Amino acid sequence: MPLSLDDPNHPTQWVRRQIKDFNDHYDKYFGPERCKRYESNGQKLVKLKSELNQAHASFDDLEGDHEDAQDDIQRLRNQLGKVDKSLKDKEKELQTQKKELAKKDADLKKADQEHASLKNQLNQAKGAKKSLEGKQKELETKMKKKDADLKKADRENASLRNQLNRARDD
Fold first, then answer.
1. Cα separation of 12 and 19, whole Å?
2. How does pLDDT run across 98-116, given as a tens digit for each residue?
């Protein structure tokens, strides 16, 4: 069964719809509103051109600022390099000073040990001196006692000699 021209599925109906859509589109973009849009677009174009010129001027300014910033960055990098080198030199100097301090600390500990050893020896010598002084006093006491005993023995001996001499004389 053939399709009727009024049937919405007929190919002519499809073509009619396409033509209608095209006409609506054409009227929308190229109809009486087109002049208004053209004028509006012209104003927009002038505005956009001025904004573009401002953007170019800003870009040129920014490009100059960028070059200045690059110069500043390079200068700061150079300063940073110098500071870094200075810090490394000071760090080496500090390491050297640390080594010297460690050596001095070791020498000081050694000197403290020697001092303690000498002090210990001094205390031992003082103790030995006191001990010897005590023995000396003891010996002096013994010597005095022996001297007294000797004198007593001499007196007794003299007394006995006197008695012996008297006894011989008698």
1. 10
2. 999 999 999 999 999 999 9
Which domain range does residue 58 map to? 12-169
Q: Report pLDDT digits (tens) over 125-147.
A: 999 999 999 999 999 999 999 99
The Cα–Cα gap between 43 and 41 comes to 5
Domain for residue 164, yes or no? yes
First and final C-alpha spacing in the chain: 206
Helix (H) or strand (E) holding 6: none
Contact 4, 10 (CB under 8 A): yes
- Of 164, 118, 19, nearest to 126 by C-alpha is 118
For the record, the structure tokens of 44 come out as 């927009």
Into how many domains does the chain fold?
1
Q: Is residue 108 part of a domain?
A: yes
The answer to whether the pTM exceeds 0.85 is no
